[in-house]
Amino acid sequence: MSRKDLKYRGTQCINCETSLDISEKYCHHCGQLNSTKKLTISDFIEEFFANFYAYDSRLRNSILSIFTKPGVLAREFNAGKRHTYANPFRLFLSVSLILFITFNFTEGDNSPNNIDPLVVDNELTENQKQDLKTLDSLSNKAISKNPNAEGLINSLNRKEINHSRDSIYTKQFIDENISSGFKPLIYTALSFRNFNRKYPEKTTEEALKELGHEVTFYTKTLFNKSKLFKSNDIESEVFDYFYQKLPFFIFLSLPILTLMFWLVFYSKKINYTEHLVFAYTFFTFIFLCMMIFNFIELISEELTYFVSGVSFAFIFPIYFYKSLRNFYQQSRWITVLKFLILNPLFFLFLGICTLIMMFIGIILF
């Protein structure tokens, strides 16, 4: 017998104790099924699959709408069609979680986090080898000029570069000989890491003084973070770290990025939350595509570069325009104009978000 049968209906909701009529199948206050029948295994299984199918159908509708009707899901969800589609916030979180898993899955054994540190220590990137060869041609006088480095001169005696070579440079040496882009920061971090591996018994303050650095909050933080690197290829480790955390960072950044939609498409008819629904829906599409890229990478890395390149150059901009057109429903030329305005604004807000996320990422590293 079904739990919905008339014989099992009561006159009071078991969940919220609201008075009910015997003809009511569900509580008009909380929506719970009006049934006094004890739960059986068959009822439990039936209820589980009913709920699963209900969510599965909303998920299917959401995915189809995202890929075939850009911007429509957000517009209809805001209009009140809440049972037709999955909640955009929940959908974004679910897709982000799956994307995070695929990042780790496709990395395999090539990730710095999955390589034996003892093996990696014997390897340097080609750029680092070239940089070190250039540095080896420089005089060690730059090191001896630093009075704080007297105890390290013997240990810093440079020989012909080989793969097992650890590199340690003082601040003065880096300041005088390395000034290109982020290289001073990279070699400072390398020096901190290698110094700690050679002299693990020394405190952070002692290490900084011997390497010619002032003992500040910044240098102490950088030294402690540098100790966490698993290889000398720290650029790849940093990139992989932020790449894996990309869904999390974008999730935190979207409320800020949504401000540009609110500014450009300002209207009393659309509030900030509705703009946010649009932003989450759009980036759900981006994340779904990135998941596809990760699976393509299992087949061919070159094909992944080609597909992702075409997507970022053509497909994503076209999709973004269509999303704006369908969601805000403004004329074609106004949408094109605002699309062009959004591009520089996007990079401005993205820069702000990047700085904030880098700060958070460094803290969490």
TrEMBL record:
- Which keywords fit this entry according to its UniProt record? Membrane, Transmembrane, Transmembrane helix
Q: Where is the chain membrane-spanning?
A: 89-106, 246-265, 277-296, 302-321, 341-364
Note the superkingdom of the native organism: Bacteria
A Pfam family annotated for this chain is DUF3667
| InterPro entries documented for this protein | DUF3667
Q: Report whether Transmembrane helix shows up as a keyword of the record.
A: yes
Output this protein's name.
Uncharacterized protein DUF3667
Q: Which organism is it from?
A: Flavobacterium aquaticum
